[in-house]
Amino acid sequence: MSARAKTALLQLAASAAAVALAFLTGALIMLLVGVNPLAVYSALFEGVLLNPYGLAQIIFKSTPLMLTGLSVAFAFRAGLFNIGAEGQMIMGGCCCALAGFSLKGLPWLIHAPLCIIAAMAGGMLWAALPGYLKAKRGAHEVITTIMMNFIAAALTNYFVMARFHEPETVHTASIMPSAFLPRLAALSSFFKGSPANAAFFIGLAACALAGWLLWKTALGYEIRAVGLSPDAAAVSGISVARKTMSAFLIAGALAGLASVNFVMGYKHYFEEDFTGGAGFMGIAVALVGQNNPAGVLAAALLFGALSHGTLVINALVPKDIVLILQALLIIFVITFDGIARRYAAANFGEKA
Amino acid sequence: MPSKYTGLLFFAALCAAGLCGCARKQAAESGAKKIGLVFDVGGRGDKSFNDSAYNGMERARKELGIEYSYIEPGEGADKESALRQLASGREGLIFGTGFLFTDDINIVSADFPDKMFACVDYAVNPAKPIAPNVVALKFREQEGSFLVGAIAGLTTKTNVVGFVGGMDIPLIHKFELGYAAGVKAVNPQCKVIVGYAGVTGEAFKNPAKGKAIAFSQIDQGADIIFHASGSTGLGVFEAARERNIKAIGVDSDQYSEAPGYILTSMIKKVDVGLYETVKSWLAGTLKGGVTELGLARDGVGYVYDENNKDLISPETIKKVESLKRKIISGEIKVPSVKENR
Amino acid sequence: MTEQIFAVELRDISIRFGKVTANDSASLRVEKGEIHALVGENGAGKSTLMKILYGMYSPDSGMMKVNGAEAHFSGPRDAIASGIGMVHQHFMLVPPLTVAENVVLGQEPVKGCCAFDSGRARELVAQISRQYGFELDPAAKVETLSVGEQQRLEILKVLFRGAEILILDEPTAVLTPQETTSFFAILRKLKAQGKTVIIITHKLREVMAVSDTVTVMRRGKTVGTVRTAATNEAGLAQMMVGRPVVFQVERRLKTEREIAASPVVLSLEGICAKSDRWLDALCGISFEIRAGEIFGVAGVEGNGQSELIEIITGLRRPQSGRLTLSGQLMDFEENSPARMSKLGVGHVPEDRHRRGLVLDYSVRDNMVLGRQRESQFCSALSRNAEAVAAFGDRMIEDFDIYPADGELAARALSGGNQQKIVVARELSRRPKLLVASQPTRGVDVGAIEFIHRKIIEARDAGAAVLLLSAELSEIMSLSDMIGVIYHGALAGVFPAGSVNEDKIGLLMAGGKLP
């Protein structure tokens, strides 16, 4: 067996052990508070996996996480910490909705792509400023992106909601039907009732595209070089400032894109707090996914399943227990993964 | 490629756990009728609206022998999912707590026509008929507000009272209009100053804004301020404490937020609303459409107890009680809709 | 004849890290009470073999005996218990603590139940320090010690733990020549007290000066053990590299007339520049380099060399002066590394780890760093992986880079092989001007010879070369013209042949020629 296959098998085993341990620990806690863990786990299993709706919810929930995770991971490859995915997603959603309800009479083939572009442009715009400040002035992107998050939330809240909100609601007017993304339920009755929509495929495509961009193009080569060794990149003639800017813009576009799942695929309007914290969760997704697109995809599915699972068993156990279980699972998974990699590196020499 | 398989494994483990658990679940089935409740995002533990709903369910469980389960959604997009989940279970009646559930209940109720849904404070859209399996649970806040307005009108020394609203929407206008009418009914000379914290949901969670509005009303002479603004009202209480005036709480008894400074509270008995709904559902008489609870069905009221009996004179209470009877009998009509807006 | 008992005996030790075989049937015998040098090029497997002996790695196969008894260590703790101590290349000291505290760390003497007995610790440490002539003040804070003293402290720590066999990994790498001399005195004292010392190094001069026996390693194997007295530097170098090594690469000295006949490639006039800390770094530097000429700049480090290179490669803007490249006057405002490299400037930076390589990139990817957009490596949008691989593998072959695996990360290679990547990359672009700064620093003998040969080849092919080096011998043996830099100004420029090392050394130190 090749070293790579052995490593993969080991990681699989480690993940299994992590999940088992998390569930075991969770069960102990449930017993402590007097809840029957078997009932909870069976509900979890039935509600998340045995149930078409549950599977569809995983798809729905993981879509924005995939894109924000990708956004954080992409920036990280350039050596940048994009804590601003949240704000970029909010701005993306805002621009997307604006384009969605203010442009009228366009055919779907033009309107929907326009709205997707608007979402990406909004995110890009919001990433451009921290990108510029980092590239040209050396301002630390962690601080600036966090601040931009606050500004995005407050700005959309104030400006958009004050001008464009529907009376007696906390959202804008609905976008035109010509900008709707089709629900998966429209394709197959399997997904009936679920808001899972075509944004999922946009997410999958973005994962593939980001992987291609990073590893198969000259731009990706340059961005990774800047992330790994900015001095060597500069000496070799790569403009660190320009690559920093490019990486930020792409990361912003990805985070902005995350908003279409909600705005174009689900509620069809921009709403306060519509992100549900997906921008921040994207940081965890990127970390668990080791900043590579395939890993981000897997991590987003895991987090999506957890998020839906949380809701499923919430009827049986207090929310606090659910949150503990969720946190435990993540901690165990990353710990065991780390152990497996170190073991693999030491024993089969597979470079981690 | 790390954690490529973690998702898969999570599923596998879930399967295993599920297989063990399936058998047990059958045994746990019982004959009791089941009800579902979805709290607002982050609502549980608000010492007001959501907790009141919880109390109503507890009371129904004890007195009517039902079973219930509840879900606390983690984000806005989970509201629909939570409703759906309860609807696909044994639950026959599902509550959504708050007007933000309106859209979600409209969608989910269409997919589950054999289940009943009830939405507290459902936002009625005149253009859209309410589905036959949806109960729009409304409260006549204007009637409770009228009574606390009367208390304020009889208690004020400066002949100026204030009102602080959260989001500037028809639902909150009911509080404002009832309050103002109550003040005028007992004290026509009294001036009512009105302020709103904003036009977005943020207006319900902005204590700093509430405090600022309260200060400006106090500067204009107000010595009693009624708020209907969620946690924005905490700022109003803070202002009342600092400037030594009285405030009136809303939704539930808010005396403990600022003891000694809370004149009374306009209580919206969500628990009663839920309990009554459950009761008529069990009796088979629950129908879709708007159900309004006012003073008549004890859906709203005001607080007068050990804590605040020194702040309100017995004569005032006597007068207020007679107004209450007049409202119930229909002798007094309390306005609830703003004209020409 | 009875079998001799060795302090250390390693037989057929092999260990692999993934694709790299670090030790391949390596065997070593160290007699009691001798100073045994383990030499080899960077990456030959010396440190790995010693880490196995110290219990840090367990070998895939092979046998280990310590004082005649077979040993199986599951960690350094076991090795220490068997009387083995190791001093690593990078010190492991706690700077704010005193000498005595550092020595007893982990084995603190206690007073009563649990109080640290600092008085007793100092006594113990002072006693050992005196015994071996270490001259260390037990009460001194480590952060106030010189590098040489810190190293003695590391050895003291090992001795305190009862080591009879000491392993020292590249101990002189951080020492000044004076410190090295006194360090050797200490080694001899240890030997006199009956300790066995194994010293890892690749500096042949030191091997000759201090060791009794030498074992040479090459590419993971031990290729031979000889008595130091029976060999010389050239013999050891040949064992290390596997072929005879020439310390002075042959070249044909050009006449002044020949040089003057070639076109000027680089011309600097009155260049003045500030350093990063905004101090005057260069002042009025003027010289020119012609095609086919190596211009060597000798000087003690920190006399403006870094700034000079950065100006020529487009990384820094000077305050004043003119730079002409192939007859084109450069506008400093628009200058950048990308522009200079497009105009034919190749750059071998002095710090290859930080500036020359992306260490986590594969050897192949490093070979095209800066050329990734050239049409042969990149078509329209995507990179041409086959072309990059083919090019990288050809360079690996041409420059004899080991291991010959283009997919290996540059980080996994030894210093010499890493430097070969940089040199290969820069020369493969056929630069008109090659700026080479410390091209052989930290590089082993075989690679030094190779790199020198390649630089001469480039010169002979018509490139202008600017060579900066702290090694005077390197400047002397390669340059056609030699400039001496002192305090940001050229103290003199001479045709090679017309000066000797003494004169240059005098100018480097700020002296005046009579």
Question: What is the topology?
Answer:
The complex is a heterotrimer of chains A (352), B (341) and C (514).
Chain A: H1 3-32, H2 37-48, H3 52-77, H4 85-102, H5 108-137, H6 141-164, H7 184-187, H8 199-216, H9 218-228, H10 230-235, H11 240-257, H12 260-263, H13 278-288, H14 293-314, H15 319-347
Chain B: H1 6-28, E1 34-38, H2 49-64, E2 67-71, H3 78-87, E3 93-97, H4 102-111, E4 116-120, E5 134-139, H5 141-155, E6 160-167, H6 170-186, E7 191-198, H7 207-219, E8 224-228, H8 233-243, E9 246-251, E10 262-268, H9 270-283, E11 289-293, E12 300-302, H10 314-329
Helix pairs in contact in B: 2-9, 3-4, 5-6, 5-10, 7-8
Chain C: E1 8-17, E2 20-30, E3 35-40, H1 46-53, E4 61-66, E5 69-70, H2 76-81, E6 84-87, H3 99-104, E7 110-111, E8 115-116, H4 118-131, H5 147-160, E9 165-169, H6 177-192, E10 196-201, H7 204-210, E11 213-218, E12 221-227, H8 233-241, H9 256-261, E13 264-274, E14 280-290, E15 294-298, H10 305-312, E16 320-325, E17 328-329, H11 337-342, E18 345-348, H12 352-356, H13 363-367, E19 378-379, E20 382-383, H14 385-398, H15 415-428, E21 433-437, H16 445-460, E22 464-469, H17 472-478, E23 481-486, E24 489-495, H18 501-508
Parallel strand pairs in C: 3-10, 3-11, 6-9, 9-10, 15-22, 15-23, 18-21, 21-22
Antiparallel strand pairs in C: 1-2, 1-4, 4-5, 7-8, 11-12, 13-14, 13-16, 16-17, 19-20, 23-24
